[in-house]
């Protein structure tokens, strides 16, 4: 059984009953060790070492085949494909004309890199979840989107205070501290890191990305 809460959509995104949507209550995250143990309990014929090796092999296969222009389908799970994007900071500099010796400004080059891995779930997996699981509403009321009462500058100062205290701030911490959704927090942090005077820069990538002081 799963629990959910009703959340209010941002202004203008819903009408009537559709302005509310159910959000699953997340109580914990399974790390790799816990996933290995859970699979071993479900399929005890496979040792934890074998399961760990299969998971490592899956990750390495994804890393190897997706950049070559392949998608990867696992029946009962879904389809993986790679998403590309540009680096945040384009390369810049000077170049010298071979014929005239004139120094010129190089055109900015935007380096293409992997940005994310797309995942499209197998519909059969959703059907299996719905067949085996019921969802009940939590006892809390509707979670409403509160309007921001602070400015970007105030939110930045709050983030810098937390960075000074613990050395970094995560996306979830920034969102929770400032009553923002994760998507809004992500956009705001991107805006701050692109500002050379913000005093904040990003470090790491993917789920390991944090924000630190410049």
Q: Write the CATH fold name of the largest domain.
A: HU Protein, Chain A
* DSSP E strands, number: 10
Cα Rg: 23 Å
**Poorly predicted sequence stretches spanning 5 or more consecutive residues:** none
- Which structural class matches the secondary elements? alpha+beta
| Relative helix content | 25-40%
Strand order of the largest sheet: 2-1-8
Number of distinct helices: 6
Mean pLDDT: 84
Could you please describe the fold and organization of this structure?
This protein is an alpha+beta fold and 214 residues long. The chain has two domains: 2-137, Irregular (HU Protein, Chain A), CATH 4.10.520; 152-213, Winged helix-like DNA-binding domain superfamily/Winged helix DNA-binding domain (Arc Repressor Mutant, subunit A). 34% of the residues lie in helices and 24% in strands. It has helices at 32-42, 48-65, 123-132, 152-166, 171-177, 182-193, and strands spanning 2-8, 20-24, 72-74, 78-86, 94-96, 103-105, 112-121, 135-137, 200-203, 210-213. A three-stranded mixed β-sheet has the order 2-1-8, with no helix packed on it. Strand 5 (94-96) and strand 6 form a beta hairpin. The relative contact order is 0.12.
């Amino acid at each position: 059984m799963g629990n959910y809460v009703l959340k209010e959509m941002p202004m203008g995104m819903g009408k009537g009953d559709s302005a509310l949507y159910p959000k699953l209550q997340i109580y914990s995250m399974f790390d790799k060790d816990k996933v290995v143990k859970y699979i071993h309990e479900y399929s005890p014929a496979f040792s934890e070492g074998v399961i760990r090796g299969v998971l490592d092999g899956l990750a390495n296969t994804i890393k190897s085949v997706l950049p070559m222009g392949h998608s990867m389908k696992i029946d009962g799970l879904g389809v993986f494909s790679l998403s590309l994007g540009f680096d945040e900071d384009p390369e810049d500099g000077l170049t010298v004309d071979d014929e005239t010796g004139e120094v010129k400004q190089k055109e900015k080059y935007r380096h293409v890199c992997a940005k994310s891995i797309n995942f499209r779930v197998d519909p059969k997996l959703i059907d299996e979840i719905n067949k085996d699981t019921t969802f009940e509403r939590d006892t809390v009321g509707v979670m409403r989107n509160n309007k921001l009462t602070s400015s970007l500058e105030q939110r930045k100062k709050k983030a810098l205070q937390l960075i000074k205290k613990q050395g970094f701030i995560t996306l979830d911490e920034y969102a929770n501290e400032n009553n923002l959704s994760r998507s809004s927090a992500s956009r705001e942090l991107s805006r701050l890191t692109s500002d050379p005077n913000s005093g904040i820069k990003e470090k790491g990538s993917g789920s390991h990305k944090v924000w630190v002081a410049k």
